[in-house]
Amino acid sequence: MDKTINGTVTLHNGVKMPYFGLGVYKVDAGSQVVDTVKTALETGYRLIDTAAFYDNEEGVGEAIKTSGIPREEIFVTTKVWNSDQGYDKTLQAFERSMEKLNLDYIDLYLIHWAVPGKYLETWRALETLYKDGRVKAIGVSNFQIHHLQTLMDKYSEKPTVNQVELHPQLSQPELRKFCQKHGIQVEAWSPLGRGRLLNHPVLNELGEKYYKTAAQIILRWHLQNNVIIIPKSVTPSRIRENAQIFDFDLSQEDMAKIDAININQRFGRDPDNANFE
Ligand code: NAD
């Protein structure tokens, strides 16, 4: 049990990032996102994952400002959307996100998807923002090994983080190994498989063994694999439930049982075959 709710990993540029947080995709703008982020912060979450595409950055910023928690204790991620990619458009999109979040800096800025023909120029814009001190760290999302390799062949600044779909039915062993080799921190989106894995017999059996829910078993598996997690919920009891994963350890044998669930099944878009229109 070497992990705590406010524990961090150190990214390759020295920035500390919490390995546990809240995702706010499909959380409505306005009071729903404000209340959800506030509940998470009160529960002890210190990482909030939003994106320009989620259309709720204002509420995320408002909840942070009014939380009473010092800004530097909260880690905020946002992302540049596909239609805003390219050098100039990314810089403009960043200013819009900053205005909406109403913060002085962003902790982590990500390329949301590797839009073909665009993502290399988008990365150049992220490098500019990083060098200008507007963001503490820059990274990518939904990058396959070949995207990462292409980007690293061209630029000196490599991504600190790759946020990808990752859960027991899509455990991405090759991508995780590649990222680890290159010092790129892996972060799981849909860590719970969008809630669709919670009736899996192996996870329920382990839940009974550890007196935990299937959701808690999955989240603990991610942490023990050194993967950052951002489970989403707007339900206060679930927000708290998802945070109660720091008082037990899965054995190596049980970790292997969860590893064996992998069937390379995506619930979200395939990064190589997505329609970026
Ligand atoms: P998730 O795996 O976090 O599942 C969320 C769903 O699971 C919720 O809507 C809820 O219905 C259910 N749930 C959550 N906790 C539960 C619990 N304890 N018991 C029962 N059900 C529970 O899926 P997600 O929202 O797709 O992913 C999490 C976050 O990842 C997003 O909010 C977003 O921040 C990020 N994300 C990023 C990308 C990307 O392209 N970079 C894509 C999707 C999501």
Question: How much helix, percentage-wise, in residues?
Answer: 25-40%
Bound ions, cofactors and other small molecules, one mention each: nicotinamide-adenine-dinucleotide
Oligomerization = single chain
Mean pLDDT over the residues: 97
Counting H and I runs of at least 4 residues, what is the number of helices? 10
In whole angstroms, how far apart are the ends?
45 Å
- What does the largest sheet look like? 8 strands, parallel
Overview of this structure, please?
The chain has 277 residues and is of the alpha/beta class. The chain contains 10 helices and 10 strands. The chain has helices at 31-43, 57-65, 87-101, 119-131, 145-154, 173-181, 201-210, 214-224, 236-241, 252-259, and strands at 8-10, 16-18, 22-23, 47-49, 75-80, 106-111, 135-141, 161-165, 185-189, 228-229. It has an 8-stranded parallel β-sheet with strand order 3-4-5-6-7-8-9-10. The chain starts with 7 loop residues before the first strand and ends in an 18-residue tail after the last helix. The relative contact order is 0.14. The structure holds nicotinamide-adenine-dinucleotide (NAD).
Strands, helices and their partners?
Layout: E1 8-10, E2 16-18, E3 22-23, H1 31-43, E4 47-49, H2 57-65, E5 75-80, H3 87-101, E6 106-111, H4 119-131, E7 135-141, H5 145-154, E8 161-165, H6 173-181, E9 185-189, H7 201-210, H8 214-224, E10 228-229, H9 236-241, H10 252-259
